[in-house]
């Protein structure tokens, strides 16, 4: 009897530990949204590493069209350190915040018409560890691009083993901003991993990047400039003098301070960041999302305190490798972004030396010019978004139309 009880207790411990390590839950209601969600949402954690100290949090939204056959996307936000829920509620997801001044209650959510989930299943992943609701059971050590890529790959393998029905769906890695450094490397990692025994291969088809990359003298480093590099220092100083009163994320939008969301003006375009942080810190929201208690203090959209080293100096070798392996790609950029200007993106694409399949042509929305596109022989499509900024949040409807046409193989 005692032995049987002992084994039962051990079994319960193992099961409870496993549930905590790789737990997921269906979310049918979200605080701030009226009524049941009109889409299928799952949230959860995937444990990474042998001891699963790292817990990566995700939001998974099923396609509203045909989830059994539609593409499966993994969305990686930039930063590094920005939560992927930024895309979920601001860029390409099925809900958005209602434009209203915060009054202390739960901010209101409404449905969107432009969600990429109209045609695709999307996993929004909080990474690296420390971003969003992802956390570590042990003190955070050094994190970097290489570790992040390995963790994302492990996450995918484990997530798909828990959701085997999506193994056959066409798979795409997607992201924006600093995601442009990570996404090509993740694609390369998945491609190589598909040839290694014994996990089922991921049905990788390609990737999508929004607004990815003073290089001659600064050698790619503008934040921690070598003091002896006087030419670079002078260029950076001149650059900041010229742009200090310009909203570099969208040059036509009034410049406003978004560094402190506690004191942000409701007139600022980034006031929605304030709403997002107030929403994510509500106990009712954390309960609805099934967040592990005690794993996260104050939630911030962009966690600048994440210890992180940028070890990928150039994504170009990964782009070249991915093209050689036959993966298609969509690179889009807002033509009013000054953080990562469209001309800079065109410059690194040009450095790939791919022959042009189709020269510049406008792509249209409702008989109006929405931007310009050019395609290359390596299955890469480059597109500008007229009036767009640094991320899809500035023109989400246009960006969604562009994505939906490309993912379905339609002419842009």
UniProtKB/TrEMBL annotation:
GO molecular function terms attached to this record: acyltransferase activity, transferring groups other than amino-acyl groups; serine-type carboxypeptidase activity
Gene3D superfamilies named among the record's database cross-references: 3.40.50.12670, alpha/beta hydrolase
Pfam families: Peptidase_S10 (PF00450)
First and last residue of the signal peptide: 1-23
Transmembrane segment boundaries: none
Highest taxon of the lineage: Eukaryota
GO biological process annotation, one example: secondary metabolic process
UniProt keyword terms in alphabetical order: Signal
InterPro entries on file: AB_hydrolase_fold, Peptidase_S10
Keyword Signal: yes
SUPFAM superfamilies the record matches: alpha/beta-Hydrolases
Protein family: Belongs to the peptidase S10 family.
Name the record gives this protein: Uncharacterized protein
Organism field: Capsella rubella
């Amino acid at each position: 009897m005692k032995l049987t009880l002992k084994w039962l207790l051990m079994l319960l411990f193992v099961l409870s530990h496993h549930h905590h390590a790789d737990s997921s839950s269906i979310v049918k209601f979200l605080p701030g949204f009226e009524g049941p969600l009109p889409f299928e949402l799952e949230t959860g954690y995937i444990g990474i590493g042998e001891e699963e100290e790292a817990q990566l949090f995700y939001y998974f939204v099923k396609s509203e069209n045909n989830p059994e056959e539609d593409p499966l996307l993994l969305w990686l936000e930039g930063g590094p350190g920005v939560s992927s829920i930024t895309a979920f509620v601001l860029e390409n997801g099925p809900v958005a915040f209602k434009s209203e001044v915060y009054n202390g209650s739960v901010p209101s959510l409404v449905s969107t018409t432009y969600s990429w989930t109209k045609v695709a299943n999307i996993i929004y992943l909080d990474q690296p560890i420390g971003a969003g609701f992802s956390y570590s059971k042990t003190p955070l050590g050094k994190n970097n691009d290489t570790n992040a890529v390995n963790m994302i790959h492990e996450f995918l393998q484990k997530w798909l083993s828990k959701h085997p029905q999506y193994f056959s769906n066409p798979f795409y890695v997607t992201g924006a901003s600093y995601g442009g450094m990570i996404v090509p490397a993740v694609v390369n990692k998945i491609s190589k991993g598909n040839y290694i025994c014994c996990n089922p291969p991921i049905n990788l088809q390609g990737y999508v990047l929004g607004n990815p990359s003073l290089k001659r003298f600064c050698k790619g480093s503008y934040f921690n400039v070598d003091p002896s590099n006087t030419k670079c220092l002078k260029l950076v100083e001149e650059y900041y003098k010229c742009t200090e009163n310009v909203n570099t994320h969208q040059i036509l939008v009034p410049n406003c301070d978004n560094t402190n969301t506690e004191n942000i003006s409701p007139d600022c375009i980034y006031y929605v960041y304030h709403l997002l942080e107030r929403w994510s810190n509500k106990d009712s929201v954390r309960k609805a999302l099934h967040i592990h208690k005690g794993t996260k203090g104050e939630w911030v959209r962009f966690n600048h305190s994440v210890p992180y080293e940028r070890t990928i100096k150039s994504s170009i070798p990964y782009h070249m490798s991915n093209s050689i392996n036959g993966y298609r790609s969509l690179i889009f950029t807002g033509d009013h972004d000054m953080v990562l200007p469209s001309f800079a993106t065109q410059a690194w694409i040009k450095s790939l030396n791919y022959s042009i399949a189709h020269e510049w042509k406008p792509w249209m929305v409702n008989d109006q010019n929405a931007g310009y596109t050019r395609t290359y022989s390596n299955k890469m499509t480059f597109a500008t978004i007229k009036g767009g900024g640094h991320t899809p949040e500035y023109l989400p409807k246009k960006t969604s139309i562009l994505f939906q046409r490309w993912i379905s193989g339609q002419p842009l």
